[in-house]
Structures are given as structure tokens and as C-alpha cells.
Amino acid sequence: MLPPTRRAGADVSRSVSATQGQQALRPRARILATFGDELISSERVAVTELVKNSYDADATRVVVRFVAPLELGKGAIEIIDNGHGMSLDTIRNAWMEPATTHRQRNRLSESGRRTVLGEKGIGRFATARLGKTLELVTRRTDSQNEVQAYFDWSQFDDPDRYLDEVEVLWEERPAITVRPDELKRILYSRGERPNENDVSHGTILRMESLRAEWDVGLLEELRRSLSRLISPTWDENKAKGDQFSIRLDVPEQYAEVAGIVRPPDTLQSPRYTVGGRVQADGKYDLTFQTAGNPDQHLVGTFRLQKRREPLQKGGEPPQKSVEAPQKTREPQCGPFEIDLRVWDRDAGAIGELAHVYNVSVANVRHDLDEASGISIYRDGFRVFPYGEPQQDWLRLDLRRVQNPTLRLSNNQIVGVISISRESNPQLRDQSNREGLMEGAALDDLRDLVKLVLNELETRRYALRRATRGDSKKPGLFRDFDLVEIRQAIQDRHGEDTELLAAIVEKETDLERRVAQVQEVLARYRRLATLGQLVDRILHDGRTPLAKIGNEADLALRDIERAQKVDRDLVGKLHKRLLAIAKHRSTLDSLLTRIEPFGGRQRGRPTQLRLEQVIADAFAVLETEIAEVGAKVTLPEGTTVVTMERAEIEQVIINLLQNTLFWLQQVPKDRRAILVDVSRTDQEVIISFSDSGPGVAPEFVDQIFEPYFSTKPDGMGLGLTIVGEIVTDYYGGDVVLVDAGPLGGATFRVTLRRRI
User: Angle 568-572-575 (CA atoms, 0-180°, nearest 5)?
Assistant: First the structure.
């Protein structure tokens, strides 16, 4: 809006004193250094950005050369490539214009074979991060001339200079630096005969007066980053002749990090792999491979859970439609390809790999430590920092701590996720090029990668179990005995009665301690189940609490405003207090449902109607059942039993939670649950059936084992707890029935004691 004296129709003569003018923004020169520090977070990232520029220029060879001494204010770093080079016009109107739209207008490289990686025009900031001066020499394809430009970045550090006062020197001249003989010497090894067209053009960046000291540790970090810069699964482009290699040249004292940058040979022999494609709608086509076993082809659809809307201010939940909402949805991240390679890191497996490649065990472990992690590649090039050491972006280590028997840690995996700028528009870079923007798309990508990993983990578990010959009866305490040790000592030292007596005494003590642990565990079972219900209690409990508070406040306000007691006031108070009573009843019912899971001392088992106990257990999860949209059929008989309510509710709730997860994998109109109760003279049988996908045949023998789970983030304890309650307290068993009434999974719970 114009100031008053400049508006159309204004009476300028009535303004007593007015001062106006125009002035353009005139930033200080140091603004470039400020931007550079924000956009380029480290020297390693700076070198990586410059190598990406070479890739965008269709280079097939890049050399990163360090010139001694690599000390602060001394030495130099050179980036030499055989890309298409730049003309003087490009230097003046694109390279010297930060944030140019040139890359946004041209999404493919000149050859048309590559999707360009640079987007925001920050290459010149990368050179400023590395050295105080830059000499740029470049030669275009089919040009006899080269362009030289000189940048003294220290001028931009002067607080008294303005940006438009800093001048950059340039010169166009006959090619004297970027010549075929010079590029051939730098880029190719002896004996290699490159095509003359590959060495007739290119770019040399020379950054002098280093801004950081480079030691062997920083150089190794750079080599590791560069070795993972190009996707190892980029073979199809190589087959088309679109090759891209990087070589690191360093002073002699750092010779161990010099040479062509590539992953070590030991990473070519993973013990397990899973790879394939996940489509935009969640459909997957994967192949699981392991040495000495036939490949397994895995086809299906991953369905993600619908995100729960946050509570509104005051605890009010969002308004829901009459129809129960879908609880599953399609991912927002778009399609991707995935290749996960996994190693067992026990001494035997590592030793076997070391023997094959004739290296030490320490070398193998070091190679895995350096390369481990799951990296993301866009259009064949690395997106940092995913997959970097100590960058466990999928929280795999925490996941393994929660279930060490089944889950894999970050240092066991070398993984590649391949996306593209065109197919995955929601996965966008952060402004500093350090990772993708947080949001729904990245969250969905995380969830889908863990679902793929889960497919590998469950099959790996089955293979390792078969190799161990582990056929013992499932149970948390199955290995807590000294039978084998006692037998071995008796065979070898049968005459040593004191030793045998000590073993027997220790075995008795161990059994006593196991009994104590089982007693404590029984209490923790209740706490574990209660912990899973806390979120639901908060969600359902805040609504009536908010209404109780509002109604009470309104009632008090009515009393305060009343000048005299009349019938209208009494009617209002009566109505409001009735509402309070109603909502209090709702809360009371909710608390009654969870009361059996409290930590108070239990009394003797009481007589209960089993059908009512089952109905109460389903009522605890009624909101989840509605969200999934499952049709529930519960028993309606009168089966009187003598038992502890909390124990049976735990059994039902664990079975129900498991069922609700798997029902989301089938269409909504097919989601159903059927519970039936029957009784004989000596047994009570609860049949729990669903219409889900059922249990895969290869996992039938493992689902009751502790810590085994086919859920991506499952703890693997639900069915174990069910089995232990039924076995320990009711002398019964839990089995998976081959064929159930609804076509999914059917569990038969048999109770033989305390009934």
C-alpha cells in the first residue's frame, strides 16, 4: 500500500511535512559466508556437493586431489572431472548467480541420461567452505578455448565491504590447462586408453589456503562417504555406458586411503538379502535369498495404520463420521526399490567370511562398521546423512534392544533405498542438503522399510532356529536348567561326589529363583498389558472429563448469577447435574474395566460368567474395534467358572490386539471376529477366530516362542504370555487350529484347572 500522500486522489497539499524515497537492499559481502555456513555443514559435505556437480555435468571420471601440507591456511584441494564444462556465459550468468533457477528449468543433464542432483545452486558455497581462494578453469565440449575465473573468498569476510563491491576476475583464453594430455594423465591410470572425446573437455576447481586441517581420520571419513555416494545397485545405468567413478589422490603419508573409491570386497557376500520394489499403493514384490537355500518370492500389500488425529484443545476429540473410519491407508512417500544385505556378526560367521577373503576377523568387522546402515539414493546418488555411522534413522538398535532374539541391529545391515525426484515428489531435501524434510512422507518411508526388514528378520529367525536344531518346548524359562551340565560332569567326573553335590545344590537354587522370577513376572504381565491401554484410556477419558468440567462450571455460574431460587434455575441445575452424573458413570465404567490390571493384592478366584468376562475384555478395546471396522460375534451362553478375571482378560486382550493388527491387512468388508465357548466334564474351551491373512506355514512352529514376531515392531511376547497364563494357572494349552470358521487364524484355548 502506498503512503497517504501517494494514494490516488489524496490531497498532497494538506501534508505539512513528508519524506519519501526508494532504496534497494544492499547486503554486506559477508552474507555469502553466513549462507555458506548454514548450507554446507562440514568439509565432507562440501567435497560431496562438488562431486555431485561433476555428476550433473555428465562426467565419467572425477579425481579429488589433496595437495600438501594439509594444514590450516596452507595446501589445496582440487576437483578435476571430464564433464561437459562451462562456457563464459554459464560462468557469468549461472555459476555466479547463487540460487539461480537454471537447474530447476533443466531437470536432466545435457546428455539426457541423468537427473541432476544440484538444485539450489550452492556449489560456490562449497568451494568457499574448503579454501580461501578458488581458481576455476573449465572447457566446453568442442571448444578450443577455456575459461579461467579467480575468486578471493577472503574479500567476503571483510565486514566493511558490500556485496556489489567484490569483483571476480575472469579470462577466456586458448586451452592451456584443460587439455587432453593433462586430463588423460590425471583421470586415467597407466595402460588405460580413453576415448579422445572423453578428455577434450572438463572442469578443474582448485581451492587453496585450506580452512580446515585434514588428518587421516577426516580423509577416511571422506572416503567412506564417497564410497557410498553412488548406489551399489546402479548396474543398469553402467550397462548403458553411463559410468561414474571417483578417485582419491592424497599425500604419501595418507596412502592407505588413496585410489579408486569403491566398497570393500568383503561386502559382496552377505548371508541374507531381501530386495525388490514397493509400489506407491503399498504392493510389494520382493525376493529373499540366503546361501544354500532356494530363493523365496514374496508378494503382497503393506497397509499402513491411519494416523490418529490429535486431541483438540480442552481434550475434545475430532468429530467423527457415523461410519467407522478406515484404519489403514496408502503411503504418501511414493514407490521405491530396496536392497538389504545382512550379516550375522557372531564369531563363527565373521571368521568364515574372513577365511574366504583371506583377511583378519578385525578387518571384516571394521568393513561392516564402516559401511553399515541403510542409505537413501535419489536417481542413483546418495542423500546424506542416511546410513552414516551413528545415524540410525530407523532406530534399529533400539528396536533390537526390545527384541534381541529376532531383530537386527544397524551394524548388521548394508542397505540401499532407491527413490527418484519424479516419482517421490513428497520426499524433499532440507535447505542445508542434510537429509529429507520431516513429515508424513518420510514417516511412511520409515514404516515401509521396517516392514520389508521384518520379512527378512522372520525368515532369518526360522533358518537360524532350524540350524540350531531348537526343538525344545517353547517358554520363557525353557533353558533355565543345568541338566546337560550335570550330565556332562557325571560322565567325566563321576567319582567327584563333592562336585556333583555342588551342581545339584546350584540346580535346586536355580529352580527356586526361577519360581521367584515367575511370581514377579506375573505382576509385570499385568503392567505390560496396562501400559498398552494407557494411550486409549487418555484418549477416551479426556472427553467425559472435559464435559464434566464444563458442565460443573456452567452450573456454578448459574447459581452465582441467580438473584433468587426459582423453578427455572432448579430445572437448569437438575439438567446439568444429570449430565455430570451420566459422564461420571462413563468414567466409572472405564475405570472398572481396567481395575483387574491394577497392582493390588489379589484375592481368591471367584465364580464368574466366562461370556461376560470375554465381553468386558472386548469392551476395553471397543474404539480400536470400531476403527478397524471388524464385525464381532461373541458367545451368549452362561458358562460359570472359578477363575481370576484379570488373567482371562489378559488372554483375550492379547489375542484381540494381535487379531486387530492382522485384520487391517484384508479389505474392510471382510474383517470379522468370532469367539465361541464350549464345556465338557473336564475342560472349558475358548475358540478365537478371525478372517485375517492367517499364519504363514513357515512360521506356525514359532509363533508361541518368546520374542518371535512377524509384526515390524512387535515385541514377540503377546502369544507367549497367553500360553504361559493358560499353562501355568489353568493346566491347559493354546494351539493354532489348522482350519477355522472364518478362514484366517483360529486359536483354541483349553482350560483344565480352576474351572
Answer: 135
Express each pLDDT in 181-223 by its tens digit: 899 999 988 778 888 788 899 999 999 999 999 999 899 889 8
Q: What is the residue whose three cell numbers read 585434514? A: 214
Burial class (CB in 10 A: 0-12, 13-18, 19+), 226: buried
Phi, psi of 570 (to 5 degrees): -60, -40
The single residue listed with the C-alpha cell 562456457 is 87
Of 118, 114, 93, nearest to 104 by C-alpha is 118
- Give residue 441's Cα distance to chain centre: 11
| CB-CB neighbours of 158 under 10 Å | 13
Burial code (b: 16+ CB inside 10 Å, e: under 16) for 600-617 equals eeeeeeeebebbebbbbb
Task: Give the H/E segment covering residue 285.
Answer: strand 283-290
3-state DSSP of 84-112: CCCCHHHHHHHHCCCCCCHHHHCCECCCC
Has residue 568 got a pLDDT over 70? yes
* pLDDT of res. 538: 53
Give pLDDT tens digits for 364-391.
888 888 788 899 988 877 888 888 777 8
Interval 510-520 mean pLDDT: 64
Backbone phi and psi for residue 149, each to the nearest 5 degrees, phi listed first: -130, 145
Counting every residue written for the chain, the total comes to: 755
Q: What is the separation of C-alpha 2 from the centre of its chain, rounded to a whole number of angstroms?
A: 51
Cell numbers 582440487: residue = 78
What is the pLDDT confidence band of residue 592, given thresholds at 50, 70 and 90? low
Going by pLDDT thresholds of 50, 70 and 90, the confidence category of residue 672 is very high
Three-state secondary structure string covering 415-483: EEEEECCCCCCCCCECCCCCCECCCHHHHHHHHHHHHHHHHHHHHHHHHHHHHHCCCCCCCCCCCCCCH
Burial class (CB in 10 A: 0-12, 13-18, 19+), 82: buried
What cell does 116 get? 541432476
Per-residue pLDDT tens over the stretch 81-91: 999 999 998 88
Q: Apex CA 210: angle with CA 94 and CA 45, to 5°?
A: 60
Strand pairing category for 672-679 and 631-633:
parallel
Higher-confidence residue: 379 or 26? 379
Residue-wise pLDDT for 413-472, tens only, equals 999 999 998 899 999 888 656 789 999 999 999 999 999 999 999 999 888 877 665 444
| Nearest residue to 52 (alpha-carbon basis) of 135, 130, 99, 116 | 116
DSSP 633: E
Give me the amino acid identity at 536.
Answer: R
Task: Give all domains of the chain, ordered by start, each with its CATH number.
Answer: 31-260 (3.30.565), 266-468 (no CATH), 505-597 (no CATH), 606-751 (3.30.565.10)
Q: With contact defined as beta carbons under 8 Å apart, do 287 and 297 qualify?
A: yes
Q: C-alpha distances in angstroms, 414 versus 87, 266, 388, 467?
A: 41, 12, 11, 24
As a whole number of angstroms, the distance between CA 327 and CA 333 comes to 18
Q: Which pLDDT score, from 0 to 100, does residue 701 have? A: 82
pLDDT at 379: 83
Q: Reduce the DSSP state of residue 576 to 3 states and report it.
A: helix
Helices 216-227 and 361-371 pack at an angle, to 10 degrees, of 70
How many CA atoms lie less than 13 Å away from 406 in the CB half-sphere? 27
pLDDT at 100: 60
Which residues lie across from 297 on neighbouring strands?
Answer: 287
pTM: 0.57
